[in-house]
Structures are given as structure tokens and as C-alpha cells.
Predict the structure.
Amino acid sequence: MLTLLKRDLTLAFRTGSSLILGIAFFLIILVIIPLSLEPSKKILITIAPGIFWVGVLLACLLSLDRIFQLDIEDGTLEVLSISPLPIEGTILAKTFAHWLTTCLPLILLVPIASILYGISKEGAIWIIISLLSGTPALSMIGAFAASLTLGLKRGSLLLSLLVLPLYIPTLIFGTEVIRKSMMDLPVTTPLVFLIAITASSIAILPILTGAAIKINLR
Amino acid sequence: MSFWKYTNPNKFMAISGKLLPVFSILTVLLISIGLIWGFFFTPDDFRMGSTVKIIYLHVPSALIAINTWFVMLVGSLIWLIRRHHVSVLISKSAAPIGLIMTIVALITGAIWGQPMWGTFWAWDPRLTSFLILFFFYLGYIALWQSVDNHDKVADLASLLCLVGSVFAILSRYAVNFWNQGLHQGASLSLDKEENISNVFWFPLIISIAGFLFLFVTLLLIKTRTEIRLKQLSKVLAVNKLG
Amino acid sequence: MAFAVSNLSCGYQDIPLLSNIEFACNNGKAIIFQGENGVGKSTLLRCLSGLNPPMSGIISLELGTHVYLGHSNALKENLSVIANLIFWENIYGSDNIDDTISSFKLENILTLEVNSLSAGQKRLVALARIHLSQRTCWILDEPTTSLDKQNVELFSKILCHHLDKQGTAIISTHLKLELPLNNLQTIDLNSFKSPSIKLDDLQC
């Protein structure tokens, strides 16, 4: 599994553009929103949790269709599905690679981005905690949706339609964690739900994703 | 298991063919009685005026919208476990019906809401859940449209229905959590059955029954069409090969 | 007997292409499938390798003993030849990478990126993966496409060596592979073509 992870990371850095694309997209969203509203501090702090999460979510969407696409095109996925590495292992490795190359860079940008929105240091820390707890779920759920639309022409549009409703619980609990922390309210309920969604997605979805991939390889 | 014999397409067509006329008549009867009684023969509510009568459309459509997804879930599970084509075709046929019912529920909910809250839309947990359900239906239907191979898409759509069901229920909780802070205690609950007197109750029950038969009738019609379509496509494919 | 297949039928979208396939393969033997285009050679090989479920029948092939090469080469174009080989070495847990490189004479192209190779060279590297896997049963779909005469001979020698070590192979090909005849069993798939379905027999 590690070797697949290494290979995917190498490929991602080799082609480079998708890495930078995600970061650039995230930053552009974060900059455009205040430009489209009146830049009052109060408004910005109120909408910040949502904007950060939506920015990460959309950046995730951009790179989701490529999780399996390239491997289907050159026949690698087929061979991997009947190799000693179980399909769930392949899926976990690729999902982790997606998270490392799409979500993690954005999380690392949060300190800088929070300056744009006038968020305090504690606020930024809670945004990071929220994203760390919830973005693995985004990658995993996204991988599941990508497995359903494998090999379809214009599949990325259908992928977005399928994955966005599935993202809603994660989005809500993720933003609630940040909002509750900003209002000094207890953060346990949404945080527990968020971590539960991530944990159960990682535990259960690989099996269903594997089934969908095998169906699509027939 | 004699119940399973209805999953044989030919038996299904035979039985549904006999039931369809009966169900159609019942549908028209019950819906007409329910709506006419409800709209024209019940007094106006002193608080909510005459627009409350929209519940004769809103409540049944909302109930069917949710139950349709449940039917799809059961059909998908039966397909994944027992591979009966009829059950997955039932799921496929139920989806557009559920979609329309959801839209009706949303529109009638908005019409009801306008005089009460002064706005056509409020991010009330219940309405928002229906909006999310709308997108779940849309995605499921879109997946069926996108893949040509029937067996493949039946499997994929069934997986989607499974995972979607879990996330749909999760969304319900999430949305409740998300909005409870703003609208605590507001009288936005739309199922005030315990507050509705008998005068309103009977036509409501009749409407609900009517919509139920409407659902079953439409489902049978669409499923029969889907079965015929599948048989036709097999004939065409064999002709191409043979 | 390494493996056997009985009463196998495979097809596409509920319609059988080939039915009642029966054969057995002993260690050290190769089976060559021949047949016209579209008869179902690739479908059958995908079935045997586990990618497509058969419509009926039994395949007694032990899991984990076979390796498959289809029409695609299963190579990452943006990585070098050696990076691809090392990847597969890790996946299959092999220890014969040096032997593979020398058998296939890949020394000169090891550091080149796959997308700069010719079609024939890419196919050769794809075949190298098969050797690298150290699996006993090789399932190969048109393995010699794009290979020039020299490389076809090279591959035939390597295949012979594999069979000598009691490996087995199932190959679909149009070309004549130079193999000593007692190792070969040619099966013409046209004899297994499914009868055309009469409309009256159709069920949903």
C-alpha cells in the first residue's frame, strides 16, 4: 500500500498542476467573497467558517475525478484490482494521496487565510482542527462518488451532483465546530459527529467503493 | 417463499395488469374526495386563514416523498442480495415519482409558509431536509441516465441509494442541529396533527390514502414500462448479434 | 493438473458469447486461443483472470496464482521504466527484478520515461511485468502486438523458459509463436460460440 501511495504522490508532484490548481482555487474563492460583499469585519468573521469549508470542499471537487481516472485509462487499475494488494488497500492509498495533495496544503494555508478574515489565533486553530477532522471524510466520500462515475464522459458534472448532497452533513458539522468555538459554546457535539463521520467513512466506504470499481471494470 | 414469485417479471406484469384499473379508480376517487372535501367543505382556521388547506396537498406529498426513498432503498437491497430485476426496476421507477412529490411538497410548503412567516422560504429544518432530499433524487436519476449497461448501472445506483440513505438521515440530524439555535420554539412545525380537530382530520386521511394509491398506481405503470423496455432492448441486442 | 474449466459460459450484458467451454491445462503447458475478431477471446480471458464474472460454469484456478495482461500496458506514462518496474516489484513482492531486466534486455531504456518509448518497447515493458510477478499462470491477451520479429523471438524464448519451469500460460493471439509443439494446445473458440438466441426463448 505504501508503494502505491508513494507512486501517486510522485505522479502528483510530477504533473504538479493539480496541486497548485487546488491552492490557487481556494485562495481565489477566499479573496473573491469579501470583494463581493461589504468588507465589514463583523460580516467577514460571521461568514468565515462557511467560506473556508466551502473553499476546501470545492477544491476537493476539482481533483476528485482524477483519483481513479488516470489509472483506468492506462489499465493500471484493472491490474491492481487483481493484484495481491486488495482493492480496498488501493482505494485507501489513493484516497490518502488525494487528501495529502488536495486538503492538507489548504489546511496549512489557514493561518495566512485567517488574517484576510480577521480571525483570531484561537479561531484559526479551531478552523484547522475542524478541517483536520472533516476533510478525510471529504476525500473518502469523494472517492466513493468517483468510483460510481468511473469512465463516464463528462463524468465530473455527474460526480459533483452526486457528491455534494453527501457532503452536507460533514459541511454542517464542520462549520458548526468553528462557529461554536467562536461563540465560546461547547464544541463537543458537532466535533464528535464530525470525527464519527470521518471514522465510519474510512472504515466502511472502501468496501463499497471497491465493489463499485469492480462493477465498472467489468 | 411464495412472495418472491412476484419478482418474476411475467407474473408481475400479470398481477399488476389486473390491479392497475382498480388502483387507478381508487386513486381518482380518494384524491377527489379528499381534496374537494378538504378545500371546500371545511371551515377556515381562525388563525391561519384558508391557506392552511394546502396541507391536504402538502402533508400527503411530503409523506410519499419520504416513503418513496424507503421503497427505493428496499428495492436496491433486494437487487444487491437476490438479483431480481423487477425490484431494481421498481427502485428506478420510484425515483421520478419521489422527485415530483418532493417538488410538490416544497412548493406547497412555500405557499403555506408565505402568509405565516411572511416569506416563501425559510431555512426551517424540515423544509431544508426536503430540499436536500430533492438533490438525492436528482443524483440517483442522473446516474441511471448516464450509464448504458443495465446491470452495471443497476448495481451502481443501488450502491448510491444505500450510501445516500445513510447520509440523508445524517443530513436530517445535521440540519436540525444547524438550525435549532435560530428558531427555537417558533411555531414552524408543519405536522400539527395533534392540534387539528376531527373536522380537518378525515379529509386529510382520505387525501393521504389517495396519494398512497396514486404512488402505487404510478409506480406500477412506470415499472411495467421499464420491464417492457428492458425486454425490448434485449431483443434488439440479440438481433444485432444474431 | 494446474487448473481446469468446465461448462463455462461468458458474455456481455446478459448475452452469452461463448458457452460450454471445457479445457484443462497441465503444468508446463500453454493454451492458445484462436478465433475471429469479436468471437469473445478478450471476454474469455478477462473472465479467467477474474475481471468479469462468468455467466455460468466453474473455473478451478487458485486465487493469487495468475497474472493478466490485457490490451492496455498498465504502465504509468509519466514515470520511468525502472520506476514502473520497481512499483510492480513492490506490489507483487518479487525478487527477480534484475533477472527480468536482463531477460528482456531493458538495460538501455531503464531511465527513460514510458511516454518516450515506441509502442513495441512499451509492450515489451508490459510483458516484463508479467515475468516480474513470478506467478505460475500467465493470462495474456494478444501479447505480441506491436513487437518486432526480434522481440517476438525474445518473448517466445522467455515463455518457453517459463513453461519449462512448470508454469502455465493462456494466450490469445493471431501470430504463430515459436514453441515446441508438445507444449501447446490450440483451441479454436469458434467451436464454443453461443447459439443465436431465438426470440421465443427470451426472458427478462
In short: The interface with chain B takes residues 13-15, 196-197, 199, 202-204 of chain C (CB under 8 Å).
